[in-house]
Amino acid sequence: MLAGTGSDVGKSILATALCRIFLQDGYTPAPFKAQNMALNSYVTPEGLEIGRAQAVQAEAAGILCHTDMNPLLLKPQSDHTSQVVLNGVPIGNKDAYDYFRREGREELRREVCAAFDRLNRQYNPIVLEGAGSISEINLRESDLVNMPMARYANADVILVGDIDRGGVFASVYGSISLQTLEDKRRIKGIVINKFRGDLRLFDEGRKMLEDLCGVPVLGVVPYYSDIHIEEEDSVDLAMKSKVAQQGGINIGVVLLRHLSNFTDFDVLERDPRVHLFYTNNTDDLQNCDIIILPGSKSTLNDLYELRRNGVAQAILRAHREGTMVMGICGGYQMMGMEVCDPLHLEGEVERLPGLGLLPISTTITTEKATRQVRFQFAGHDCQGYEIHQGVSTVEAPIVETDRCMGTYIHGILDNAPVIDYLLAPFAEKVRARSQSFDYQAFKEQQYDKLADHVRQHLNMEILYQILQGND
Fold first, then answer.
1. Is 410 a catalytic residue?
2. Is the dihedral of CA 95, 101, 106, 110 positive or negative?
3. Whole-prediction pTM value?
4. What is the pLDDT of residue 58?
5. pLDDT tens digits for 348-383?
6. Rounded CA gap, 129 and 214, in Å?
7. Smallest Cα–Cα separation from 418: which of 395, 394, 436?
8. From 329, 382, 453, 457, the catalytic residue
9. Looking at residue 18, which CATH number applies to its domain?
10. Does the chain have fewer CB atoms within 10 Å around its N or its C terminus?
11. Has residue 26 been placed in a domain?
């Protein structure tokens, strides 16, 4: 298990790296995270929903993703409530206080343990991932994903600390010190992540940590900026918000408050023909060649906000002046004539007019559609996946009108024929950079680069000794 001193210390990325390393070394690894909290999810071949991070880790491990890799997924709907997805199927919305109370936790614990058991019978090793900090002692008895899961799986635990945010000595030492004696013994190594500068400067720090904690430091992994792995959380999207540029095709993704499945745009971020940025600035939208309305976890709330802050009007004005507009999932629903919520599933508002760019109307429903999709586009076989609550009046994989395109299909932009079609009207801008981008080959290359980076800075010999019980 890769456990953390806190959130966003790099557990998911290191788990991805180890999945690829173990695959390269001839093993059959699989990822596992008992409970995940993320808006960025994925659909398994069976049409069930899991966290995107475990889908990425499965891809790095060279296997198909399955709900057993992430049996419990929480999808935040507000600051206090989340949709609970168990074994790939939504089972209702929960208030955070109610969810983290002890009542009902044992049933969920049985489910996540059963999922681990099924996975453990098929793969070796299992790369478990914790969540947040392992030292939230007030949640210890209700915890499903950190040290209680490690105990159930009889997993060796590697503690990951983020030196880039500061306080790594206190966070590592404190995280270990706050464990019970049984759990302390389970922590077999420390990894210091996101180091910047000359690694030799931390040689003394490594020895200090080992003396303080009585646990070996297995590696100090440098910060990198040249390896691109699909991210789980949208915390960095605001940092990617940049204005349009001269040269290349400017694509603006509308920065919704409840934006989901932002990995739909990873391929465009890497495409040399494109300058992609995230914005809700009305002036920036006027300078776009293409505007994309992304998915949303709360379509009506985001549609209301677009009308309130003037973004809806800016999109319509840009479209009249020649900009192409594309909507994916919730964004597709917003582009229609209206969005209705007669059952008040998203809130008190029953109906809002859409942008009127596509001839569809949408009704939010209790049933959630989750499935992988294969479709034809410009004579090519393409694929993606759907995750949405709502039924639209036009049933087609893609709906088009003049300079408008809408679809429920996430991952549609991972298909080169779709990208080429979108960019074709702007060929004059990219004559010198007109080659299509092979995203799948790019991802495989990035998994190998990540594995090489982590292997170089992690003592794999000691790690294998730990896994073989020779620590």
1. yes
2. positive
3. 0.85
4. 98
5. 899 999 999 999 999 999 999 999 999 999 999 999
6. 22
7. 436
8. 329
9. 3.40.50.300
10. C
11. yes
